[in-house]
Design a protein that fits this description.
The chain is an alpha+beta fold. The protein has one domain. The protein has three helices and two strands, in the order ββααα. A two-stranded antiparallel ribbon has the order 1-2. Strand 1 and strand 2 form a beta hairpin. Helix 1 crosses helix 2. 9% of the residues are buried. This is Ribbon-helix-helix domain-containing protein.
Length: 91
């Protein structure tokens, strides 16, 4: 049996990026991860979301970029540099 973490449906929140309001739907765990990453960088959540928005490729949605950012933040740094792009070999 697998032990699952607490789960919530996506929560929609409004954010302002470059003076424009938009809404993003993320699960609570991802909202907490974005907030923690922003705090660790000494910035607001809105500022971090804006930076992620500007850095993401246009074909990747903002919610996806935020989730992937949080997952990357949680991964321990690998010795010798970043892991190669693409899916893990065991998928």
């Amino acid at each position: 049996m697998i032990d699952l973490p607490p789960m919530t449906p996506p929560l929609k929140r409004s954010v302002t990026i470059d003076g424009h309001r938009t809404s993003v739907s993320l699960e609570d765990a991802f909202w907490r991860g974005v907030a923690e990453a922003a705090r660790a960088r000494g910035m607001t959540r809105a500022d971090l979301i804006g930076q992620i928005d500007h850095a993401r490729p246009p074909e990747v949605g903002l919610a996806t970029a935020l989730r992937l950012f949080v997952v990357a933040e949680l991964r321990p740094a690998k010795a010798g540099g970043a892991s190669p792009p693409g899916p893990p070999e065991d998928i």
